[in-house]
């Protein structure tokens, strides 16, 4: 038997345990009939499951011994598992953390999403450029899912709407879909830590109503005979299809409706088992929208209640708004989802009628409260006027939900004062709240960093801190203890060695494990400012080149690591990756400088790579332009693992700073209230670049890092400098110098690292979930006996 076969056998054995717990949990919940939470997300970035399941079930030592007895080492084949490629970035990883916390805290909850055949693309670097390849993560099956051919629902598209008058003289509508597909359920058990509670993520896969048109086949139309099958399966084939063309837009909208339509049928089927009246639906069901992607669920539930269950419009709308709540993840205008009215009318004709009605009744209420304010009506309308008209999904989500939350204190304040300021005035401030994001310590410390987890457990006398992260604060008492500092920094060094081995194995580069590891790993985007980071690396390299050999000896050596994917159609982000790789080639091949500076781009960033990368960092960079990052969760993971932050006063960085103390975080840069003023000023004057930045730009233009013509579009972004790179570049470099000074004091650095990690109790996803349950869902834990 090889390692892969051993992995499969182990996975199926562990899955059987999960199924036992899952069955017990569902039976117990059915008997108690509690209020259930349904978390709707188009992404669940779960990562690998085997190690997590073994730790949560507390059976890892048993399996290690059993496998050793038959000649295998668990550590050798745990990496045989392919990451479940069901997400894109922070949104999907947050959803996975929340599912872990819901299970651990004994909440009766389900996640719902899509079972993508191809996940986010595989990223390979070819000649310095990002190249995308399909990520067919299901090649060898997925032992963690259970196909539920007994749980299927029909989903309709297109077709027509018929009006009729019912027995009571009320106008009613029926929607007859022209295209019909079938949603098939796949269940993914999620075990809690230290509890029997095992909840579920139900993922939908799209299948045709008919597998095969035999008449077409007999007539020789072979392609035509399987056309329906292909069209149906395409709906769930790719995570977020490229929507910069019409076919992609249609497919993405189909995905969103397919997912909410199947989910609501499943939720309603479960609700109806208890034969409760519809008025009790919000007392039994809480549905959380993770961003605007599932917003069509609001419209679909209204359609079901009015068209199929024959409730009055007002009764139905009251149920809908009490059931749904919405998490906003961005205030960036370009990221707020909009769909053209003709597209929705074609694909979902009845839903477009309902959206117009929701908007009409809503604007009538606004008009009553703010008479003759046409500008306010225009701003608040779900429909954005133009040719064509557009549906603003964030407005629909806010109007159709009883609570709207942001994901960090600053972000929630921006939600209230920018995109939803009119809605706050209309509804009152109590509808808009904050729930700061969190991460699960089970995955992001206990699993990802076993050496540090063992050290903390030993010091605290047990693993209870994994279910109550506030207990971490007790290790602050040892922050100046020399023996504890030594043990703490030894775990950091072990993690650096582990990462260095991975880099050597995948890229063939040996890195200095005594250097400061400086990491920025996240989606490539202009607002996240990887561009500023690489410009800073060029500045450091050229400064090192100007020093004598003796002077270089005094400089703190850095290993700078980037990792992250750019969206396939995002040209500027892809140019940043190209620049990083070109600069890496120059630096790493310079024998004078490479002992003091190395630059690494790790391709194909994933949860599994993050688990190796995050525990090894000394400094991580979270340097978005102030006011652009909703929260961030990787910043929490880095600090939890004893890495310090170099960052802007933005997102959850602010709250992390409040917890760890100003002396244990390196802040720099423009503050949020000043950003718009600076942008406004820059529009009316020619921009003079910060002198050190100008020098770096000239160096790129002089072809020192490859043909500069390639980078002209990237450098051109500095002329308008929307993301304030020039304004923040000087303070950024000065802050990096402060990092170097601090790192030279090894005892002082150890104290900072211990204190920062010990201050992270607030940033557990358990705390986030408890806040949702108490303030938004009104849901209570149900402990399985």
Automatic annotation (TrEMBL):
<protein>
    <recommendedName>
        <fullName>Alpha-1,4 glucan phosphorylase</fullName>
        <ecNumber>2.4.1.1</ecNumber>
    </recommendedName>
</protein>
<dbReference type="InterPro" id="IPR035090">
    <property type="entry name" value="Pyridoxal_P_attach_site"/>
</dbReference>
<keyword id="KW-0663">Pyridoxal phosphate</keyword>
<dbReference type="GO" id="GO:0005980">
    <property type="term" value="P:glycogen catabolic process"/>
</dbReference>
<dbReference type="GO" id="GO:0008184">
    <property type="term" value="F:glycogen phosphorylase activity"/>
</dbReference>
<dbReference type="GO" id="GO:0005737">
    <property type="term" value="C:cytoplasm"/>
</dbReference>
<keyword id="KW-0119">Carbohydrate metabolism</keyword>
<dbReference type="InterPro" id="IPR011833">
    <property type="entry name" value="Glycg_phsphrylas"/>
</dbReference>
<keyword id="KW-0328">Glycosyltransferase</keyword>
<keyword id="KW-0808">Transferase</keyword>
<feature type="modified residue" description="N6-(pyridoxal phosphate)lysine">
    <location>
        <position position="637"/>
    </location>
</feature>
<comment type="similarity">
    <text>Belongs to the glycogen phosphorylase family.</text>
</comment>
<comment type="function">
    <text>Allosteric enzyme that catalyzes the rate-limiting step in glycogen catabolism, the phosphorolytic cleavage of glycogen to produce glucose-1-phosphate, and plays a central role in maintaining cellular and organismal glucose homeostasis.</text>
</comment>
<dbReference type="GO" id="GO:0030170">
    <property type="term" value="F:pyridoxal phosphate binding"/>
</dbReference>
<dbReference type="Pfam" id="PF00343">
    <property type="entry name" value="Phosphorylase"/>
</dbReference>
<dbReference type="InterPro" id="IPR000811">
    <property type="entry name" value="Glyco_trans_35"/>
</dbReference>
<keyword id="KW-0321">Glycogen metabolism</keyword>
<keyword id="KW-0021">Allosteric enzyme</keyword>
């Amino acid at each position: 038997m090889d390692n892969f076969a051993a992995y499969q056998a182990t996975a199926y054995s562990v899955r059987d345990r999960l199924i036992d717990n899952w069955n017990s949990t569902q039976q117990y919940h059915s008997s108690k009939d509690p209020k259930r939470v349904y978390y709707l997300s188009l992404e669940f970035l779960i990562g690998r499951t085997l190690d997590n399941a073994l730790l949560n079930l507390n059976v890892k030592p048993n399996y290690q011994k059993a496998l050793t007895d038959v000649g295998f080492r668990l550590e050798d084949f745990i990496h045989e598992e392919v990451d479940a490629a069901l997400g894109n970035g922070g949104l999907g990883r947050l959803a996975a953390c929340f599912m872990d916390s819901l299970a651990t805290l004994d909440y009766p909850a389900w996640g719902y999403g899509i079972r993508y055949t191809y996940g986010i693309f595989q990223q390979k670097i070819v000649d310095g450029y990002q190249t995308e390849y399909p990520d067919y993560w299901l090649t060898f099956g997925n032992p963690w899912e259970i196909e539920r051919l007994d749980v299927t629902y029909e989903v309709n598209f297109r077709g027509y709407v018929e009006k009729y008058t019912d027995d009571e003289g009320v106008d009613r509508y029926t929607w007859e879909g022209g295209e019909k597909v079938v949603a098939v359920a796949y269940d993914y058990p999620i075990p809690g830590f230290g509890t029997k509670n095992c909840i579920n993520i139900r993922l939908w896969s799209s299948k045709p109503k008919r597998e095969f048109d035999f008449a077409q086949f007999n007539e020789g139309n072979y392609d035509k005979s399987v056309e329906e099958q292909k069209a149906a399966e395409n709906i769930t084939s790719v995570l977020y299809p490229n929507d910069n063309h019409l076919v992609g837009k249609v497919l993405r909208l189909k995905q969103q409706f397919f997912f909410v339509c199947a989910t609501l049928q499943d939720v309603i089927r479960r609700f109806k088992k208890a034969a409760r009246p519809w008025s009790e639906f919000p007392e039994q069901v809480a549905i959380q929208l993770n961003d605007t992607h599932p917003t069509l669920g609001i419209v679909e539930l209204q359609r079901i209640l009015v068209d199929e269950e024959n409730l009055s419009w007002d009764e139905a709308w009251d149920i809908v708004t009490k059931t749904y709540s919405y998490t906003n993840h961005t205030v960036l205008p370009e990221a707020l989802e909009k769909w053209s009215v003709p597209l929705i009318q074609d694909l979902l004709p009845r839903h477009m009628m309902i959206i117009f009605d929701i908007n009409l009744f809503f604007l009538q209420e606004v008009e009553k409260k703010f008479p003759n304010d046409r500008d306010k009506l225009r701003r608040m309308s779900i429909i954005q006027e133009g040719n064509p008209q557009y549906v603003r999904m964030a407005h629909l989500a806010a109007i159709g939900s009883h609570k709207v939350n942001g994901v960090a204190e600053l972000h929630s304040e921006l939600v209230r004062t920018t995109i939803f300021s009119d809605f706050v005035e209309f509804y009152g401030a109590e509808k808009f709240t904050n729930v700061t994001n969190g991460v699960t310590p089970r995955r992001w410390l206990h699993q990802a960093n076993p050496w540090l987890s063992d050290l903390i457990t030993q010091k605290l006398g047990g693993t209870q801190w994994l279910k109550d992260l506030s207990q971490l604060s007790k290790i602050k008492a040892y922050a100046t203890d020399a023996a504890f500092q030594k043990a703490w920094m030894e775990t950091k060094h072990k993690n650096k060695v582990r990462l260095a081995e991975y880099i050597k194995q995948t890229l063939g580069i040996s890195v200095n494990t005594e250097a400061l590891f400086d990491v920025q790993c996240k989606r490539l985007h202009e607002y996240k400012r990887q561009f500023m980071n690489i410009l800073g690396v060029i500045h450091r390299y050229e400064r090192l080149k100007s020093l004598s050999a003796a002077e270089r000896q005094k400089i703190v050596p850095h290993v700078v690591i980037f990792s992250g994917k750019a969206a396939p159609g995002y040209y500027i982000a892809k140019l940043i990756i190209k620049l990083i790789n070109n600069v890496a080639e120059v630096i790493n091949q310079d024998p004078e400088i490479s002992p003091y500076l190395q630059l690494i781009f790790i391709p194909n960033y994933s949860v599994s790579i993050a688990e190796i990368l995050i525990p090894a960092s000394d400094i991580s960079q979270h340097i978005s332009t102030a006011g652009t990052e909703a929260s961030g969760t990787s910043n929490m993971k880095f600090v939890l693992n004893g890495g310090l932050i170099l960052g802007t006063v933005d997102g959850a960085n602010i709250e992390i700073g409040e917890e760890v103390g100003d002396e244990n975080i390196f802040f720099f840069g423009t503050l949020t209230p000043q950003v718009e003023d600076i942008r406004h000023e820059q529009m009316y004057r020619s921009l003079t670049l910060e002198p050190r930045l100008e020098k770096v730009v000239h160096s790129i233009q002089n072809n020192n890092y490859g043909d500069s013509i390639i980078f002209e579009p990237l450098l051109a972004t500095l002329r308008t400098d929307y993301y304030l790179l020039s304004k923040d570049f000087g303070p950024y470099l000065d802050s990096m110098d402060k990092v170097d000074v601090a790192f030279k004091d090894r005892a002082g650095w150890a104290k900072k690292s211990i204190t920062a990690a010990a201050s992270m109790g607030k940033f557990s996803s358990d705390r986030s979930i408890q806040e949702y349950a108490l303030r938004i869902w009104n849901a209570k834990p149900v402990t399985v006996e």
